[in-house]
Specification:
This protein is an all-alpha fold. It has eight helices and two strands. It has a two-stranded antiparallel sheet.
Length: 234
Amino acid sequence: MTPEVTTPIVQICRTCGGGAPVDVHFCPQCTKILTLGRQGDYFSFLGLPRKLRIDAAELERNFRALSRQFHPDYFYNAPPAERRASLERTSYLNDAYRTLKQPISRIAYLLEREGMGTVSAEREAGAAAQVPPALLEEVFALNEELDEVRSLRAAGTPDAEWKARLERARTPIDTKRDEHERQLEQLSDRWDAAVDGNAAAQERRKILESLRDRMLERNYINNLLAGIERELST
């Protein structure tokens, strides 16, 4: 069987027409800053492996170094194309840094890049409220308690009494959230081990599916807790 030939992804320098690997920032031929075109991902842009337990100090160092290289002040007298490239790369760099700095947004971004869909909290908050199966029992009990609390409030029950009841009702939800945070940490470790061990695609897929499910449940839990906070503040 003839081995499959993989064509490397390249970007084209608009100054000299030379080619460069997708995440090189300056043209190897003419050394000019490259216009931001098709990128690999935030991880490679910042010189990091596509893992979830990244070195925070390395992330910071790489971000600062690239910030200095791309800073628009260095391109003040450059041709318009280079000034534009500086601004584009600076903006992309800032987005990459903000995303990878936080563990949760890092997981959400990895899932998106790996073709697992978007699992951002903003998307879940605006989506139809479908209760994740793993949370059915807690959500059913919470909704019953919320109905009771609203009835107490309507009957003129003192605030201290119904608020204390509402605080007790959130305890199982808080416990579930803590459990999900631990599971996300464990799954992050499993993903990194799979990357280091060059695990098969099927094994990686299972880890990603578990990460996606835990993230969706986590977002739902946070929406529940936000609803309780609104009840307490009224």
